[in-house]
């Protein structure tokens, strides 16, 4: 973890931007209009399970395991989260029918390796006792009958299993859509994964994919086929999902400064809302996605270490790195806090985003992951990973963030009946 992500910043937010940086509170276009455009996305919330066709997932090198390759089935995943109560936070997790497939090749890298599409890292042996970075190569996703899909690229990290299972690791990773076909042709998108990696089989866990669907090729108001529930392949974990959004134009966001006056990021506060996202590959019009936004159930305060003046252009090949500290507070209908926790993005990528029909409007895509730490109330002692899949508008500043939390929950403390 870098210093930017592991230490509380000692500077503060300032109301006026320094020269060369935009005024975050200015409105190039009305706040409500920009917020609506940021939400024109198709979301696929998936459970990936090894399909059994690829044999051992481990790639062997001279020094031992140097990577992993697998073929996966992508199931529909529905997370139905209840409003928090005095009893805490609970969600029903239902895994449905297969809607797609995923092939990947992941290679372990040195900690300082600069990952680029097509760039092979030096052979690096697995050390299951510590965190290690890996690069995601040959990522290929298809949906339905295979006419829709995309190729991807990204990076991730392994985390030692707390139960000391020698063949398994916790993994988190963030990827970017590099080229789409079918309904995904020409779209921008990103995905985040969290789950377990078994060197004998492959990856089991969540993949949350989000594409900017300006022409509404995938978004639909039509009723999707019912979920055909199958046995949960990840029963030790419970997945929660929340949406963060700026309440209104009055809720301010500021630059964050170090004591010597340098800009080191942004500070913002957002509402947390329940959200229900669903998808299907065999709907009335093929691949389809729908979403319903629910009530406010908490608040998120964030410090995002992100350099607006970074020389990287924020493209698919050269994204801008970011790290963040995020404090979450969930409350019941009486307003009393039922859970607090922090989740830090330790590996994140930022991409610039042009908004159709709004020339001159700045926006950026964030995608990253990191551990859940420092929990209290119901979250005391909780272990898990957070996936961050977000869009942010600049001048006016608006947020449309989707968080998925994979919680180690062998006793079902966070599980509700479906």
Structure description:
- The protein has about 425 residues and is an all-beta fold.
- The chain has one domain.
- Helix content is about 5%, strand content about 55%.
- It has 2 helices and 19 strands.
- The strands form 2 sheets. It has an 8-stranded antiparallel beta barrel with strand order 11-13-14-15-16-17-18-19. An 8-stranded antiparallel β-barrel has the order 2-4-5-6-7-8-9-10.
- The longest helix has 8 residues.
- It is globular, with a radius of gyration of 20 Å.
Topology readout:
Elements: H1 3-6, E1 12-14, H2 31-38, E2 41-50, E3 58-61, E4 64-81, E5 91-109, E6 132-143, E7 148-160, E8 168-181, E9 188-198, E10 202-212, E11 237-245, E12 254-257, E13 263-283, E14 286-305, E15 320-331, E16 337-354, E17 362-377, E18 384-394, E19 398-408
Antiparallel strand pairs: 1-12, 2-4, 2-10, 3-4, 4-5, 5-6, 6-7, 7-8, 8-9, 9-10, 11-13, 11-19, 12-13, 13-14, 14-15, 15-16, 16-17, 17-18, 18-19
